[in-house]
Amino acid sequence: MERREAIQERLAELTERVSAVQAKTDAATARRDAAEAELDAEEASVAKERELIAGSVPADLLKLYEKLREQQGGVGAARLYQRKCEGCHIELNITELNDVRAAARDAVVRCENCRRILVRTSESGL
Ligand SMILES: [Zn+2]
Hints:
Number of strands: 4
Low-confidence stretches: none
Helix content: 55-70%
Strand content: 5-15%
Number of domains: 2
Radius of gyration: 28 Å
Bound molecules: zinc ion
Order of helices and strands: HHEEHEE
Structural class: alpha+beta
C-alpha cells in the first residue's frame, strides 16, 4: 500500500513537471510565432521600400548594382566614409580620392579595391 502511494505521488509529481515543461514550450512557441510574424511584416515592408527605390534607379545602374551585390556577398554599394570604402574597409589612396573628387556628382564611382559602387556623402572625406 505504501509503495502504491509512493508511485502515485511520483506520478503526480512527474505529471506536474510535464505540464510545466509543456507550458514553457507553448510560451516559447508563441514568442517564436510572434517574432516570425514581426519578421515577415518587416520583410514585406523592406521589400516594398526597396522596390520603390529600385524603381527610381536607372536600369543600367541597377543592373550593375545587382551584379556587384551577387559577387560581393550581398553588398553591391558601400558608403565612402572618411576616405574609406565601407565595403572592404580599405582607405582610398590620394590618387583614387582625387579621381572621386574630380568625378561628376552623378557619376558612378567604384572602389578600386573591391569594385563596389561608392556612395559619396558629406562625410566621405573628400
Ligand atoms: Zn571597397
